Amino acid sequence: xxxxxxxSSDLGLLVKRYTGLDTKIVELEKTGTLNLFPNPTDNNLFxxxxxxxxxxDAAYLISNMFGQAVIKGSLMNNQSVVDVSLLPAGMYLVExxxxxxxxxxxFVKD
Length: 110
What we know:
By secondary structure, the protein is an all-beta fold. The chain is 0% helix and 55% strand.
């Protein structure tokens, strides 16, 4: 049975609830934009967000695939340039945390 209520998740997504035994996430809707470029990158990673993601208090945290934090900082005017040249090659997660929620993206370091 589909429930008529909708809840928002920590990832900035709207999720329609399913109350049956076979639960799955359906009907996702993005509520903000997080841009990471260039992707893949070898030197600088540009982080840009829309105002509904970031804000004055927005911070970023870059983690490796083991969940270890490797770089953190603050977004200024919904953007930042991060030097990732010293990171080993691999895939990384970028988490943006603000009063408006938590948003996650990923990038590849060459």
